[in-house]
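Why do we care about 3D structure at all? Because function follows from shape, and shape follows, mostly, from sequence. That is the central idea of this module. The next example makes it concrete: a single protein chain, its amino acid sequence, and then its structure expressed as tokens.
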Amino acid sequence: MKLQDIFRQADLKVDYDVLNEDENHELAVQVQVRLIALDLLNPPADGKFGPLSTQALIDFQRLTNCGEEGFIGKMTAKKLIECKGLPQPDIKLGNDLASRIIKYMLAKKYKVFVGNDVYNIVYLEGANEDGIPNADTPNHFNDRRMVIQIRADGVPKIIGNWQGTTEPGRHYTVNKMNPKGAARVAFGQYCAWQVGSHGRSRPHEALVQTGGAVTVHRDFNKDYSRVGDKLDTGYFGINQHHGYNNPENNISTASAGCLVGRSITGHQEFMRIIKQDRRYQANHKYVFYSTLIDAKEL
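And the structure:
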């Protein structure tokens, strides 16, 4: 069965819960392909129509006013076949820090998630708590880890803002774990992190880089700068973990290039918030996006 079959038969309705049946595999894949094309679902289109696919379909039906929630009928089939793009959410931007970050992300064509129970993870490098750029001194926790939410009212709000680092400390810059040099994540947005565990001697819950590749600059010359460094893309264990309550002026061994929140309690709060994301609640293997921005660019 395909969407075209449902469209041609006005009385045909396919409930969500039967999309996982073998006889509906072709239809499930077709629906997923369309939802992926409309940026409502992450690849792959594998025909496994689980909670994330179902939620993406519900979101599509609501955004396009299908009036068929709970099943795919003639209207949903028609709109899935014909839809070229979805209505853009009405985001109300001001001059506050959250708005400036979201404005920057939109200008870069990064994904911005809107909804009462979805979150945007953002790292602001070389910034104080208020977003004002600082000297970005090496081996200091002088970056910000943030969670931004845009609820149904369209107003961006920073619901978490913690001290952190997006750069390796002195120890792993000088004592390279990789012969190419310490890793500095390239500015940009990546879909790469899943909830897991970081560390061996002091393991703790974290976002671990098991869901996608990340691009880094290799600081071969140990100058604490990305300028002139070679790029390297892959799975490097660039996790989002805590910094063991290390002092503000000494990252020490807390980061070899990971995205690190300095305090243990702050990190625990960060994890508590992002695990409330409905996409994670629907599938604990959900892959989170994170965005790294140079504070001087805002």
